[in-house]
TrEMBL record:
Binding note for cofactor: Binds 1 zinc ion.
Family the UniProt entry places it in: Belongs to the peptidase M3B family.
Residue ranges constituting the Oligopeptidase F N-terminal domain according to the UniProt record: 108-175
Gene (UniProt): pepF
Alphabetically ordered keywords of this record: Hydrolase, Metal-binding, Metalloprotease, Protease, Zinc
Requisite cofactors: Zn(2+)
Function: Has oligopeptidase activity and degrades a variety of small bioactive peptides.
Molecular function terms, GO-annotated: metal ion binding; metalloendopeptidase activity
Species classification: Bacteria, Bacillati, Bacillota, Clostridia, Christensenellales
PANTHER family, sorted: PROTEASE M3 THIMET OLIGOPEPTIDASE-RELATED, SACCHAROLYSIN
All copies of domain Peptidase M3A/M3B catalytic, residue ranges: 198-577
Protein name: Oligopeptidase F
Amino acid sequence: MERSSVENKYKWKIEDIFASDEEWENYFKETEKYLDFKHYEGTLTSAENVAKMFRAQEEASIRIERLHLYAHMRHDEDSRASEYTSMQSRSMSLYVQFSSAISFVDPELTALPAEILQSFATDKRLSDYDYYFRQLIRGKEHILSANEEKILAMGGEVYSQFHEIFGMIDNADIKLGCVTDADGNEIPLTHGMYGVILHGEDRELRKKAFEAYYDAYISLKNTIAATYFGNVKKDVFLSRARNYSSCLERALDGEDVNVVVYKNLLDSVDASLPSMHRYIRDRKKIMKLDEQHMYDIYAPLVSDAEMKLSYEEACDLVVRGLAPLGKDYQALLQKGFSEGWVDVMETTGKRSGAYSTGIFGLHPYVLLNYQPTTHDVFTIAHEMGHSLHTYFSNQNQPYAKADYRIFVAEVASTVNEVLLLKYVLSTTEDVNLKKYLLAYYLDTIRTTLHRQTMFAEFEYVAHDMVEKGEALTSDNLSAAYLKLNEKYYGDGIVHDWQIAHEWSRIPHFYTSFYVYKYSTGIISAISIASRILKEGESAVRDYKAFLSSGGSDSPVELLKIAGVDLTERKAFDTAMREFDDTLKEFETLNGIEN
């Protein structure tokens, strides 16, 4: 389908950003005038001068974000349109100029005595930046001398090389080969196709794909191990250079998260693993397998359970399902659906998948490629969760505090999914759909919570080995990974020897200590949704206060507003109990006894 044949009601109103490309061009030329900050250099010693600089910085930043969003969205409408690729590149060049122009700000402010920074943090003229200044003060002990900082900065491109090397291996050099299906058709393996096959019903094809896929990584295991070892050594070097006690402490400090959160995650998931092992055994029973292998773990347990709804019907269901969040939240959903926030239809050249985006001072936008499937119904709820988090933050915070951290980015989207799932489960009489949704929920928790925590524990183990002076090799990395796989999946599955090498194919390991945020995100969301359904209005009020808090404080502190304290075990235990309760309901519906 070509975009020109889609009704306007199914397209986002991009003209709310700029009415035309010509208007974008004029705005671009005007914005270039906002990038001169030289007259501020050397003046950031008074609150008055700092306030003036920040106002100018905000104005330039908002303008550049507006330019980039328009070009980015136009490009995603049809990637074949080269003019929007060019406009994207030009807006990014503008951002690079801006970043360079203000690069003096942080070093100049950080060099000031703590008492002056403290006075800035309490000055009314700089109230929008109080958290920023608290962060500067907190980080001063890890800031080195000017010459030392310059030397570390010069190594920036070197530090990123390990990620880039793995990217070249993973996307360009690796040969995944082909597999043959039951009809004799030869299927070229790609990362995407591997996922499709693993989620399919053809078991023999899953086995072939699994073996071929891992053969490719195993053939490069020593090169990949050396690359990952280099990445971890880089982390150790930077952590010691900046006076951190560990790589974990340095990584979490960047988002103002206490190390106790990470340790709570590992401990709580470890304690809950018997339920995970039981679910793995349940999958084996339902699939009627003599032996369950790692290539069986994503196969569907329930077939023919799609909610085949039109887009309008799906939107109505989402609105009804999110009724616990209040009529004002439902009204905002309706507003988004009816006033051009959402680009709905799959068209030729359009970017695949789904996302939510936006800029300060304007409503958010959502890209979909809607199909009448159960997954896509939940995608609507998920992306609108992101959008309304952005909406509430932008409405209630100044620009400097509106952007929330990645640590909490998946909370609102997952709260919506959980509430919608609970609603459908409570209202449908379709037993097959109930089985499907319960399995969907269990697998979501398994993959987003348990699996990502296993990854997080592997990272913790690997960094600890290097911090203690041990080299990383393909052999000891695979041994550590296999031990964790056996711990997390239990005795209901065959731990195929190839799975020991799974560490070698995970790109996120090159952004160290990132994956745990997926786990803490779903834990927080489950805890919030549970509280909303139990306590009602008071919990909803607290949740909306959290949605409205943007990035005004540490993400861990902001979650406390919604009743989630990740420095304690309660929220973790709530999520683990949710998995256990869902598993019991799933077993009852499927007639499984344990």
